[in-house]
Structure formats: structure tokens, C-alpha cells
Amino acid sequence: METLTIIQGRQIDGKDIALIRDLRRKHPEWSRYRLSRELATRWCWRNGKGLLKDMACRSLLGKLADRGVIELPALRCISPNRYRHQAVREVAYDAKPIHTSLHSVQPLRVLNVSTPSTAELFSHLLARHHYRGYRQAVGENLRYLITANNGRPLACVLFGSSAWKCVDRDRFIGWNDEQRQRQLSLITNNQRFLILPWVRIPCLASHVLSLVSKRISIDWLEKYGHPVHLLETFVDRSKFSGVCYRAANWQCVGCTTGRSRQDRHHRLSVPIKDLYVYTLSSRTRQRLCQ
Known about the structure:
Blueprint: E1 5-7, E2 10-12, H1 14-26, H2 32-42, H3 54-66, E3 98-99, H4 102-105, E4 109-112, H5 116-129, E5 142-147, E6 153-161, H6 167-173, H7 177-183, E7 187-195, E8 199-200, H8 204-224, E9 230-236, H9 243-247, E10 251-255, E11 273-279, H10 284-288
Parallel strand pairs: 3-8, 7-9
Antiparallel strand pairs: 1-2, 4-5, 5-6, 6-7, 9-11, 10-11
Helix pairs in contact: 2-3
């Protein structure tokens, strides 16, 4: 691999490949875990809190192996992340209809999902009632469970990794390729947004988006050691109009081309989605283009 490439958000060149191969030759007894820890340490690959990004490094190694660039040691045990492939557990909850005004359920509680009980409920509600389903989030993410003033769940909101490349978004920000590669972690994607099907409360969706947008950057900083400056989401125009995003002052800045990220050979066709973004401050573009 002589040319520079980007894998797992990191620039990889021939020297990096040579280092991986050299470590494999000198330490054939090393596991994938040991190899990824060593590489992350040598590359000083850490998150905003200073923790080694060894999981990202293992993913990078796997992708290089899939391309035939390197060989990896055989797997010695099941990944600790195997739980994300298991079925979501059933959880009991109150599904009686809620047809009322926004005022009557305020103040809403925005719970940052962090305890086992809220995590199980969040996962179950999304898996059962979101049209795209849900198992577990991977990578940097925040999960919010929205409840009424009496504690009854009303909505679930998931933010995770942003799209690696999106022409209309990158044009809106003013990014070049180098800036995008360096600053992509400062954007997060609203991957799931669910108002529970038995909830009928006018203006609830836009109000939830507004509440979350006011706190998400601080929550992200606390959890991962860096803030986010821009929110994005893709709205399937064949199913939704995006009215709640517009009501919450998100901007529609373009649309997708009808291709998925797996469409390497231009053969797959997926629904066209509108791209909405929300800037978290008046200096968002300036901060993203540093």
C-alpha cells in the first residue's frame, strides 16, 4: 500500500503497513487485542479523554485483512462486543394511549441512557417500534429516553457516528477532504428518532429535538472528551416529510443520491433521503473548518 488511504477515520500509508507486518513477524504469539493495543500506543491514537482507541484499531486491522493487505492472528475468543448481535430483551411497559397537550406532560425529562434498566427499555422500545429496528449502538453515541412529568416514556432519540462523506453537507460546511477527515468526529448523526406509537401530543417531536440540541454537546464532551458542533440526519422522503425537523429549526441542505455506503459497484438502489442539519452555534462552520 504505497498511497495514503483513510480507514476508521485514520490516515494509513506504507510505513504503517510495514509496522504492522513487522510486529506480526516479531511477535507471532500476539493476539489481535495485543497487536491493536500496541499499534494504538505507538500511533498515540486516543480519544478526547486520553483512552486508547484500541477497538477502533482492531476494526482498522480487520478491514486491512479483508482487503488482503495484512494477515491477522486467528481469533482466540468471542469478542466482548458480541452482545450487540443478540436479540433485545423483552421489557414490560405501559402502552396505554396518551392523547393530550404538550403543556400537560411538561416538564419533560431528558434521560441520558446510562443505567441497565433504562438501557433495556430504550433498546426494547426502538427494536419493537422503530421501522428500522434496533440492536445496539456502536462507536461514539448518545441515547436519550424522553419521559413525561409522571415518568411515562414518550420518545427515544439516538445520536451516533456521522456519515463519512456527504457532498451536500460538506459543501454546506465548506470542508475540503483534509478538514473532513480531521474534524468528522465533531458531527453526530440522529440515527433513530421515535415518538412512541400510542403517544399523540401535538408539537412533541420538535420540542424533543430542541431540548436535546441544548444539551448534546455538553453531554458528548462529558462522555468522550470532545464536543460536537453540528447535528445531521437523513429523512426518507418516501416515508416522512421532515416537518418536525423544520419546526425545530433544522435546515434541509440537500439529499442523497440513492446509493448506500456499500454500493461500491454502483448497483444498489436505496430510497433517496433529505439531509437536514442543525448548527449548535453561530461559529459552527468556523470551528469545523479549523
